[in-house]
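A quick aside before the break. I want you to see a complete sequence-to-structure record at least once, exactly as it would be stored in a machine-readable document. Don't worry about memorizing anything.
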Amino acid sequence: METDRPELNRLLSVVVPVFNEVDSLRPLVEQVKESLDGGLECRWELVLVDDASFDGSGELIDALAQEFSEVRALHLTGRSGQSAALEAGFRHSRGEIVSLLDADLQTHPGDLPMMIELLDAKDVDAVIGVRAERHDSAWKKFSSRVANGVRNWLTHEDISDTGCPIKVFRRRAILGVCLFNGAHRFLPTLLKMKGFEVYQIPVRHTQRRWGTSKYGTWDRAFRGLYDALGVRWAQKRNLKWEIRADDETP
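That is the input. The structure line, written in tokens, reads:
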């Protein structure tokens, strides 16, 4: 419903990829609702994208969509991976602002209002979270730090925490990026390749309370390295052009 307050006519889409996260889904919806209903001066929707879960997550997503008017359910027909689930969610979202959140609630939905304020205040195209105090095992923190460093070295970037799952984008920015399998690890770099401006901000991080991580250390390392080499190749081949001002049609 349209109102005479422009900020309330703006819609935020929160996209969450889901694979076997049945225990965290209701807490996720409740925490998102509590955080956004009280702290956000715009309308919002929560887009839950089920990546062919087999633990009952898909059925629960449908039930939550019936229970909460803000929840929308999307179901991929087969296991497609996190990047595919994200692209499906991005392209089926309806918001002028699109955000990304993980289903495990290790990052806090309550940080989204602050990130959206920064999106406007800094006049940037994306605000990227940086997990200031990570509540993971020492090995996971070490391996993530190494992987992040290698990715930055290969792509000549300075992204502090490219794997942080909480991010906010302007719609035109995230839909202007060409995604691929594994692209979720490189979203800030892919945005910058297209000329979009990215701002980084510390966010909260908590221990995982439900389910287990879907990535092992070594498969994540090898895939990440392989993808980083591909991103570096794309950076070198990236097209850059601009039409001369006096050639533009008024």
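Two observations worth writing down. Residues 1-6 have pLDDT under 50 and may be disordered. The longest helix spans residues 217-236. We'll return to this after the break.
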